[in-house]
Amino acid sequence: MTRIKKIGIRGIRISFVDSDYNYMELNQLTAHELLNLMKKGEVSPQEILDSLFKRIKKIEKKVKSFVFLPPTIFKKKCSDKPNSQKVIGGLSSIPIAIKDNICVKGEPTTCASKILQGFKPPYDGTVIQKLKKAGAILLGKTNMDEFAFGSSCETSFYGPTHNPWDLERVPGGSSGGSAAAVAADETILALGSDTGGSIRQPASFCGVVGLKPTYGRVSRYGLIAFASSLDQIGTITKDVTDAALLLNIISGYDPKDSTCAKIPVPDFRKSLKDNIQGLKIGVVKECFKKGLDKEVGEKITDSVKLFEKLGARVKKISLPCLDYAISCYYILGPAEASSNLARFDGVQYGLRKEVKTLKEMYEKTREFGFGKEAKRRII
C-alpha cells in the first residue's frame, strides 16, 4: 500500500490501538487530500479501500462503530483511476459511512432497533442519491441510539459503540457510530442526523468536525424521522474543508421533502479562509451558569482567549430564551416521536409477532420491538 508522509497532528497522534504511527496511512487522510492525490495519479481508489479494510479488520471489534458492512464491500474492486474525471471535485471514489436511520436501497436500515430487524428500504434517500451521483463509495451503516433517542450511543439494540480515544468512555450520540468511525479512521467521511445535538455532541466527544445544517438546507427524504420539525441530516468529517465539500454535495432543494428550502446553494468552500481575522464570535452568558463543570468552563475560556489571539472579535451575548429550550424540546420531541413511531406496529415494517388478534399483534410487536428508551419517549 502507498505510504504518504505527512507533517501535522494527524501524522503523529497516538491512538488506542497503534502507538507506532510515524507515517500517514491513507485511511487517516481527509477526503480533499485523497482527491488531490488521486487527481495526480499518486493513489488509486483500491488503495484507499484496502487501507480502510485493514483498519476496520484491526479495530472494529473494539470500537463497534458499524452495525452493517456489506459483505461485497470487502471484495469490491475499484479501477486504478477515479470513477469519473467529471466528479473529481466531488467525492469520486471517497468512502463514506451512513448512519443507520438513513435509507439505502436494498441494505438493512434499522435505526438500531429490534423492531426494524430485516427491513431493507426499496429506495435511496435523497442524500444517498446525491452521494452516488458524486461518485462516493458507501461503506456501511453506523451504530446509533435507538431511533436517535439518546446522547451516548448506548441505547442501540446492537449494543454500545465505544469512544476510540478511550474505550471506557462513550462516543456521544445519537450519531455516535458515525463520529467514532471518523475519529478511529475507519472511514473518510460520515453522515449523521441531528435533532437536538446528535451530530454536534458526538463530534465533540470524539474530536472530529460535526455540522448540523440549517433546517431545510438538506432534504430529509429517506431519513427515518424522530421529530420531523427538528431533524436534519448533516456531516461528520476530519476537518472543516471536508465538511464544506460534503455539504456542497448533499445540500439543495428536493420536491420530495415539503420542508426543504427552495433557495440556491452556495459553494461553502469559498467561505474557508486561512485565518479568522475579524470573525465575530458570540459567547452566550446563560451557558456559564451554575452546573457547568469547572474544567469544561476553563477549556471554553481558554478557547475564547485563543480565538482573540488569532484575531477574532469576541462579544458576550444574552439568550434569555435558552432557559426554556429544553422544556420546549421535550414537548415537541416526544410528541412528534410518538406520532412518527406509530407506523411500526408489525403490519408493514420489520418485526412482527404472530398472535391471534390484530390488537394483540400491535401490542406484542411494539412490546418486544422497542427498547426501554423508545418506550419511555413514546409514553
Q: What is the H/E order?
A: HHHEEHEHEHEEHEHEHHH
What structural category do the secondary elements indicate? alpha/beta
By DSSP, the count of extended strands is: 8
CATH superfamily of the largest domain: Amidase signature (AS) domain
* Whole-number total of structural domains: 3
CATH architecture of the largest domain: Alpha-Beta Complex
- Which CATH first-tier class of the largest domain would you pick? Alpha Beta
Q: Main sheet: which strands, in order across?
A: 1-3-2-4-6-5
Briefly note the CATH topology name of the largest domain. Answer: Amidase signature (AS) enzymes
* Uncertain residue segments: 1-22, 83-89
Major sheet attributes: 6 strands, mixed
Shape: globular
Radius of gyration over alpha carbons? Answer: 21 Å
- Proportion of residues in extended strands: 5-15%
